[in-house]
Write a structure and sequence with these properties.
Pfam families: Autoind_synth. It catalyses: a fatty acyl-[ACP] + S-adenosyl-L-methionine = an N-acyl-L-homoserine lactone + S-methyl-5'-thioadenosine + holo-[ACP] + H(+). Keywords: Autoinducer synthesis, Quorum sensing, S-adenosyl-L-methionine, Transferase. Belongs to the autoinducer synthase family. The protein is α+β, with helices and mostly antiparallel strands and 67 residues long. A two-stranded antiparallel sheet has the order 1-2. The protein has one helix spanning 15-32, and strands at 4-9, 54-59. It has one domain. The chain is globular. The longest helix has 18 residues, at 15-32.
Length: 67
């Protein structure tokens, strides 16, 4: 399996990768660490997810966000 490290900004990130990042954040911060966060549809987002945001994330061969 190949892992690709990607950097995207808020306005250019593919929607499936963006959803993958928000889903991973939900799993880590809400489920695992049990932080008191408002989530919607098992996705965690906040005020920093805006046009100034940049994301560094890992994807596997199928483009699934893995980190």
């Amino acid at each position: 399996m190949t892992i690709m490290i990607k950097k995207s900004d808020f306005l250019a990130i593919p929607s499936e990768e963006y959803k993958g990042i928000l889903s991973l954040r939900y799993q880590v911060f809400k489920q695992r660490l049990e932080w008191d966060l408002v989530v919607e549809n098992n996705l965690e987002s906040d005020e920093y997810d805006n046009s100034n945001a940049e994301y560094i994330h890992a994807c596997d061969d199928t483009e699934k966000v893995s980190g």
